[in-house]
Automatic annotation (TrEMBL):
InterPro entries: DnaJ_domain, J_dom_sf
CDD domains: DnaJ
GO molecular function annotation: protein folding chaperone; protein-folding chaperone binding; unfolded protein binding
Region (Disordered): 72-93
Organism: Absidia glauca
Gene of this entry: ABSGL_06283.1 scaffold 8040
Membrane-spanning residues: none
Lineage: Eukaryota, Fungi, Fungi incertae sedis, Mucoromycota, Mucoromycotina
SMART domains documented for this protein: DnaJ
Gene Ontology CC: one annotated term: cytoplasm
Record-given protein name: J domain-containing protein
Bias kind Polar residues: ranges: 77-93
Domain J: 5-76
PROSITE patterns: DNAJ_2 (PS50076)
Length: 193
């Protein structure tokens, strides 16, 4: 799993001050704003410009707030992998980005014959809730989340909460921290619209 390199997107060093970040945002926003495209620009060019502009807005949202920046830097150090190519509005990319392999410890089977019942029910319920919240994109994210939670129940034979409580404190902390960080980074796209 890679996280966006917001410093690279704004073209600032990791030592940049808050003022440097604001100035870099203004510069990048002016350079890449979709409204600056020529009237002859294709739909694909407009979509790419919109994605790039959203990345710039996401970078300001994360780096422009000291606490979010501190959390981002901590995640960045833990992950050690970056990508300047993100598409926060692609539902499958966003779902993988948010949930990825966060639940790896919980997905290890503990029952003799894990079933598929809860995985199917979870995917269906998640898709319905996701659709209510965020239309088709939300349905995809919800289905993945529901499927993952159902799969945990299938593999453990107990509720997700009980399986989570069985993990040691460090494992629980890592899951919650990673999930929160991924959620905030992917969710920042919607806040900055």
């Amino acid at each position: 799993m890679t996280i966006p390199d917001y410093y690279g997107i704004l073209e600032v060093p990791v030592t940049a001050t808050q003022e440097d970040i604001r100035q870099a945002y203004k510069k990048q926003a002016l350079l890449h704003h979709p409204d600056r495209l020529a009237s002859t620009a294709t739909q694909v060019e407009r979509e790419e410009a919109t994605k790039r502009f959203q990345q710039i807005a996401d970078a300001l949202y994360i780096l422009g707030n000291e606490q979010r920046r501190k959390d981002y830097d901590a995640s960045r150090q833990r992950q050690g992998a970056f990508s300047t190519q993100t598409d926060p509005h692609t539902s499958s990319t966003q779902a993988h980005h948010v949930f990825g392999n966060v639940f790896e410890d919980l997905l290890q089977p503990e029952v003799d014959r894990p079933g598929h019942t809860w995985r199917i029910l979870g995917a269906g319920a998640g898709a319905v809730l996701g659709f209510i919240v965020g239309n088709v994109g939300g349905a995809a994210v919800g289905a993945l989340a529901g499927k993952t939670l159902g799969q945990i129940r299938d593999h453990k034979g107990v509720s997700v909460y009980t399986a989570f409580q069985r993990l040691n404190l460090d494992q629980r902390r890592d899951i919650l921290t990673t999930l929160l960080t991924r959620f905030l980074m992917s969710g920042s796209a919607g806040v900055m619209k």
